[in-house]
């Protein structure tokens, strides 16, 4: 499950706009996007995280000062 979460976050970080109207710099486009909410549900009791089987993860893109994402 951890691999799935890490893969999803990585995929979201690598996604870039494809249409011509929004093909500005990556720094500008990532600064304007809202946080992504990921809902995680563990089906097995042995996989609970701090006693919880359901939780939300919020991923907010951050752009470095030099413009690298």
Task: Describe the fold and architecture.
- Helix content is 29%, strand content 17%.
- The protein is of the alpha+beta class and 69 residues long.
- Strands 1-2 form a two-stranded antiparallel ribbon.
- It is elongated.
- The mean pLDDT is 72.
- Please count the beta strands (DSSP E, at least 2 residues each): 2
Number of domains: 1
Averaged pLDDT: 72
- Unreliable runs: none
Taken from the alpha-carbon principal axes, the silhouette is elongated
- Spatial order of the strands in the main sheet? 1-2
Tally of helical segments: 2
Main sheet makeup: 2 strands, antiparallel
Strand and helix layout:
Layout: H1 2-14, H2 26-32, E1 36-41, E2 54-59
Antiparallel strand pairs: 1-2
What is this structure, in a nutshell?
The chain is an alpha+beta fold.
What distinguishing features does this structure have?
about 70 residues; alpha+beta; single chain; about 30% helix; 2 helices
